[in-house]
Amino acid sequence: MKVGNWQGNLSRIPGFSILDRYIFVELLLPFLFGMGLFTSLGVAIGTLFDLVRRITESGLPFTLALKILLLKMPEFIVLAFPMSILLAALMAYSRLASDSELIALKSIGISVYRLIIPAIVLSLIVTGLTYVFNDYVAPAASYEANATMTKALRPNRKSFIEDNIIYPEYGKVRPADGGEAQTVLRRLFYAERFNGQEMLGLTILDRTQPEVNQIITSESASWNIEKNIWDFYNGTIYLIDPNGSYRNIVRFQHQQLALPRTPLDLAFRGRDGSEMTLRQAREYLEILQLSGNPTKTRKLQVQIEQKISLPFVCLVFGMIGAALGLRPQNSNKATSFGICIVLIFSYYLLSFVTSSLGIGGVLTPLMAAWLPNILGLTAGGILLLQSAK
Q1: Residue of 1, 48, 221, 289 with fewest CB within 10 Å of its CB?
Q2: DSSP tag of 199
């Protein structure tokens, strides 16, 4: 599409003037260049070299390697979006500054804040694209790529945990004296083996009823999809009073018990947080919170918040790039590119640090994910104020 056609389409946007269209096109060309550059670098460094090694050393078929390469691309496109916005804003506004166009625009009374509107508009558009790719495209593609790699290199590897499936379920209990509620074990699910269809050699401790505790042993159990319930076969239920004495013993050949499906979900190898959509991650978080594993729970909570905060990096980088590009001393293209690399490295280093602090419990998951964006917007605002003076 020609630049003139772009300007014609942009003219239909309410409030978009000729100046806005001009700057928008100036931003668009380096943005597309940045998308190609950063995506290619990410794919080459993060995937291509590893695939070449696996082709030569492990015998990975070339067709599967090509499929994995294509499936990995959305993951790097997500990271390239904010980087490209930063590069586009730096190069576009630096070009305007180097050609004294900014001086001319300021001389006729156009403020710096008015000049960055096209950069903010483009940043918001790319923020939406980043969210779509990050939540719908990249997780499914990454999961398929990893599954294809595993199947090709380790064809005999089972897709489920085979032995010793343990699922503890915890709950809050308030003491009789009305003190602070304590976390106690409510149910413990253990199976010796899982063959992909049935749990074998089960022992279940159930303390969910205040009047009686249950110990359930069973030769096998399977999940009834139609009724959303467990079918247990050839087992015994021991009913125990709270004081530790036996109340009753019930033997059965087939018994349906309304227990959580969670042990089955844990038996199948789940996706990593980066391979889940936001909805899937939130559903899995409910499972982890019941399992009583605080480290894994915090890690997933941080990843969920990062799925929301990551797209807004585009807005942060758009503001910082525009503010820096408006400075006359940054009018050189080489300088702009160097500043871009330093800012990208600094931001993602800060993001890694805050993420680690969130997983370690030093920061809340919300703060761990959003603190880099908050600091970035603050820095962009300060730079913009300085450029306006």
Answers
A1: 1
A2: E
- State the Cα–Cα distance between residues 216 and 140, nearest whole angstrom: 39
CA-based Rg of the chain, rounded to a whole angstrom?
28
Share of the chain above pLDDT 90, in %: 34
Is there a contact between 262 and 289 (Cβ–Cβ < 8 Å)?
Answer: no
Tens of pLDDT, residues 101-156 = 777 877 777 888 888 899 999 999 999 999 999 998 999 898 888 888 877 877 66
Compute the distance between CA of residue 219 and CA of residue 227 in angstroms, rounded to an integer. 21
Question: Phi/psi zone of residue 157: left (φ > 0), alpha (ψ -120 to 50 degrees), beta?
Answer: beta
The angle formed by the CA atoms of residues 44, 50 and 52, to the nearest 5 degrees, is 90
Q: Which two tokens stand for residue 263?
A: 């042990």
Alpha helices by DSSP H, listed for 99-196, are 101-107, 112-115, 117-132, 138-153
Supply the pLDDT for residue 303. 92
Select from 284, 256, 262, 255 the least CA-distant residue to 272: 284
Q: State the pLDDT at residue 305.
A: 94
For residues 372 and 351, is the Cβ–Cβ distance under 8 A?
yes
Q: How far apart are CA 73 and CA 80, in angstroms?
A: 10
**Residue labelled with tokens 């019941």:** 290
Contacts of 95 (CB under 8 A, 6+ apart): 26, 331, 333
127 within 8 A of 315, measured Cβ to Cβ: yes
User: Mean pLDDT: which of 44-48, 159-163, 278-282, 351-355 is highest?
Assistant: 351-355
| Cβ(294)–Cβ(355) below 8 Å | no
Instruction: State pLDDT tens for residues 274-293.
Output: 888 888 888 778 777 766 67
160 has pLDDT over 70: no
Distance CA 260, CA 50 (A): 41
CA distance 185 to 108: 72
Q: Residues 295, 89: contact at Cβ < 8 Å? A: no
- The dihedrals phi and psi of 27, each to the nearest 5 degrees, come to -75, -35
Residues linked to residue 206 through DSSP beta bridges, in sequence order:
187, 214
3 state DSSP class of 379: helix
Any idea what the Cα angle at residue 303 is, between residues 310 and 280, rounded to 5°?
105
* Structure tokens, 184: 């106690």
- Structure tokens belonging to residue 197: 């269809």
